[in-house]
C-alpha cells in the first residue's frame, strides 16, 4: 500500500503549475461520446478519476486514444452498449454523467448506482427527476439506474436544491431533446460553465450557464470539436493553503483568478498577502495567521472541496475559528486524524470549532477522502518532524503529480510502499 512520508517545517517557496479541472474533465469526457465524430480534449488532468472514466467509455465501445499525457481523442460512433459496468462506478461517482450523455444520444442508458468518496449522502434523485421531466422512464433494477425514452422533449425543470451533478446531467440529456428546456436553480460552478461551453462548441444551443437559469434549445446532432479544459480551482486552492500553512511564498500559475475569489478572500482575512495576475495568483504568508469563520456554500460561495484545507490552516492560526459545512455531512472525518498531530478541534453536527495551536507535530495519519487527504498532507508539511499519510489512493484520484509539485516548492515528501523506503527517507532527511 502506497503512503506519503513527509518531513515538515519547510516553507513552500516557488512556482507551481495547475492542471486541468478534474470535475470539468469528467463531465466533458462523458459529453464527448454524444457525437459520432472525433473529439480532441486538451488540458486533461492525468488523475485516477479521469483514467477510470476513459476506461469506462472505451469498454462500452468508444474509441479512446491518449495522444499525450494531457490530451485525448474520443470517437463515440462505435458505441455498442448503453450499459456501464459496476466496476467503474464503484471507483468514481462521476461515472453517472454517462447517464445524461447516453440518454441524450441513444434515448436509453443503464448505469449502476454511484460510488466515490465517502463524504456523506449525495442522492441522485434530482438527476432522475430531470430525466423523467424530459420524458424518460426511470427505474432502479439490479442495483442500476435504467433510463429510456422513445423521445425526449424539452421541459421547464426546477431543481429543489443546487446540484452540480444534476445540472450537468440534465443539461447533457436536454441538449439532444426536442424543443426548449429551462433548468431553474441550476448550479453556477465554473465546471458547469465549462461543460456547457464544450457542448456549445459541438453545436449545442445552451445559454445562461454560470447563472441560476440555463436555457437549452435541443439539436438533432452534435459534431466534432477541439477543446481545452479550464484550470482546476480546487488544486489551485490547495496549493494556496499549503503556502499559508507552511508560512511560504508560492506563485500558483495557469489559473483563472475569478474562480478563486472565495478562497482568496479567506486567505486575506487570515493574514496572507495575495497578489493576482492575469493567469496566476501569488500567496505570501509572512505574518502569524489569524482566526476566521467560514461556511461552505454553492458557487460563488466558499467551496466544500476547500473546507478541509482551510480547517488544517486554521488549526495553526491564533484564536478560535468556526467552520460550518452546509453541503456534505461527513466532511469532518479528517479532524480525528488532525488531533493526532496536536490540533484542538471540537465537532458538533455540521460545525467544527477550531482552537488554534502554536504547532502541529508529525504522526501517522490516514486519508479519509480526496480533499481531506490533501489537507492532511498540508498538515504534515507544516508540522514538526515526520508525518506518514496512509490511503493516498484517495489523493491520487484528484491530484496530478502531487508529491512532485510539492517537491518543486521545497517540500520533503516521498511516495513510499515499504518499511525499507520509509527508513531510507528518514536517514536521508536526518
From TrEMBL:
GO terms for biological process: cell division; cell wall organization; peptidoglycan biosynthetic process; regulation of cell shape; UDP-N-acetylgalactosamine biosynthetic process. It catalyses: phosphoenolpyruvate + UDP-N-acetyl-alpha-D-glucosamine = UDP-N-acetyl-3-O-(1-carboxyvinyl)-alpha-D-glucosamine + phosphate. Keywords: Cell cycle, Cell division, Cell shape, Cell wall biogenesis/degradation, Cytoplasm, Peptidoglycan synthesis, Pyruvate, Transferase. UDP-N-acetyl-alpha-D-glucosamine binds at residues 93, 122-126, 305, 327. Residues 7-406 form the Enolpyruvate transferase domain. It comes from the Bacteria. The modification 2-(S-cysteinyl)pyruvic acid O-phosphothioketal is found at residue 117. The active site is at 117 (proton donor). The keyword Calcium does not apply. One of its GO terms (molecular function) is UDP-N-acetylglucosamine 1-carboxyvinyltransferase activity. Its main location: cytoplasm. InterPro entries: Enolpyruvate_Tfrase_dom, Enolpyruvate_Tfrase_sf, MurA_subfamily, RNA3'P_cycl/enolpyr_Trfase_a/b, UDP_GlcNAc_COvinyl_MurA. It is found in: Cytoplasm. Its EC number is 2.5.1.7. It comes from Robinsoniella peoriensis. CDD domains: UdpNAET. Belongs to the EPSP synthase family. MurA subfamily. Pathway: Cell wall biogenesis; peptidoglycan biosynthesis. This is UDP-N-acetylglucosamine 1-carboxyvinyltransferase. It holds the Pfam family EPSP_synthase. Cell wall formation. Adds enolpyruvyl to UDP-N-acetylglucosamine.
